Amino acid sequence: MTHRRHRLLLAALLLPALATGCGSDAGGGTAALSLSGLTETADKVPDAGAGTCPLPYDIAAAAKTAGIDGAAGPGPVRDEGEPVATAEGGKRAEAGEPLAENPGVLVSCAFHIGGEDVPVHTVATRSPQALAPLAPVIQMLSGASVDGLSAYLRQTGDAEAGDAVVTESGNVAAVRLALTGDGDAYLLVGLGEAGAGAPAREQQVSDLARALADQVG
Question: Is 0.90 surpassed by the pTM of this model?
Answer without folding.
Answer: no
